[in-house]
Amino acid sequence: MVMFASQLISPISRSVRGKLISIRRMSAATNTDCAKSLLYKEYGEPVDVLQITTQTIEQPASDQVSVKWLLAPINPADINTIQGKYPSRPALPAVPGNEGVGEVVAVGSGVRNLGVGDKVLPNGPNFGTWRTRANYESKDVMRIPNDIGLVEASMMNVNPCTAYRMLKDFVPLKSGDTVIQNGGNSAVGQLVIQLCKIWNYKSVSVVRDRPNIQELKDQLMSLGADEVLTEEEVRKTQLFKSKKLPAPKLALNCICGQSAVEIMRHLGHGGVVVTYGGMSREPLTVPASALIFKDISLKGFWMTAWTKLNTESQERAKMFEDLAAFFRNKTLQSPPHKLVPFCDYQEAVAKALSFDGRTGVKYILDLTKS
């Protein structure tokens, strides 16, 4: 009679083998529950104050989900937060990272709105996404469709939302209206161009001159820009006086200084300037004539503040539905980016710090490669 090897093992051997299997399972469970994160205990330059730490992740409580983070972009706000220069700062010690995409890997017994395998985004600022895994209350993460690309999903919370809200909330734009912006090759700038194309607005983007300026112009035009001008060209342009394009109703400013003055100068009567950054670190100077004779209005926008006020709003839900659809049908594309393994985070934060608006690459931490 032929017998399988397992049938020849003695009861004692089976017992020993059972214990070994149990040990292996315990070891596997321990590895599964082990998470790495980037932590800073004091403010300073990221390369100096960030350190990798390891934590044990417990099974989620009844109202919690356990999230495995997959990708997390590095934004200027993240760097400024670590430096202690950003208005919104978490209590120390802290894990940096305002946005990212994760996958639910375990759910508590009382959770009904999320399941294992769902892709999720942070549902608020200062979330601490530069880690491989953590537990959260289910209300603190937001499910997104699984058919959106991971890169697009990882950066959906900040830049696309900023571009969307600035185009929706300040001027009642209609088809054919013109928007002018500086920082046109920034991540937000490229998304503004694409959203203008989707909604049939005209867009004029101002960028800094560089040796490969025509290559950059071609890239932005391929995204849907109607005109791309250097800062020197925007000072001399007859684009609006010649009626080639209607005078802009909305100007988006992330540079300040003279760059802001130049785009403001082209606004039509009653136009609005929305400032959402100050990359030049120069003040925003407003000519009196712009206020007196053209009735220009000056506004500011901070995505973090908007999110805090609108976390549960229908407006926010509609925005994410729209953006998800645009990414899904490829009418909206993510800016140029580079994935950097989590273990090589120092390279990513160093290059993010040296970003000067010319390289045009967003760095994203790949948290699956820790």
From TrEMBL:
Gene Ontology biological-process entries: fatty acid biosynthetic process
Q: What is its main location?
A: mitochondrion
Q: Where does this one sit in the cell?
A: Mitochondrion
Keywords for this protein:
Fatty acid biosynthesis, Fatty acid metabolism, Lipid biosynthesis, Lipid metabolism, Mitochondrion, NADP, Oxidoreductase, Transit peptide
Q: GO CC annotation: what is one?
A: mitochondrion
Q: What is its EC number?
A: 1.3.1.104
Question: What CDD domains has UniProt attached to this entry?
Answer: ETR
Q: Which InterPro entries match?
A: ADH-like_C (IPR013149), ADH-like_N (IPR013154), ER (IPR020843), GroES-like_sf (IPR011032), Mito_Enoyl-ACP_Reductase (IPR051034), NAD(P)-bd_dom_sf (IPR036291)
Top-level lineage group: Eukaryota
Q: Where are the transmembrane segments?
A: none
Keyword field contains Transmembrane:
no
> What GO molecular functions are on record for this protein?
enoyl-[acyl-carrier-protein] reductase (NADPH) activity
Q: Which residues form the Enoyl reductase (ER) domain?
A: 45-361
Q: Which reaction does it catalyse?
A: a 2,3-saturated acyl-[ACP] + NADP(+) = a (2E)-enoyl-[ACP] + NADPH + H(+)
Family to which this protein belongs: Belongs to the zinc-containing alcohol dehydrogenase family. Quinone oxidoreductase subfamily.
UniProt-recorded name of the protein: Enoyl-[acyl-carrier-protein] reductase, mitochondrial
What is the organism field in this record? Ooceraea biroi (Clonal raider ant)
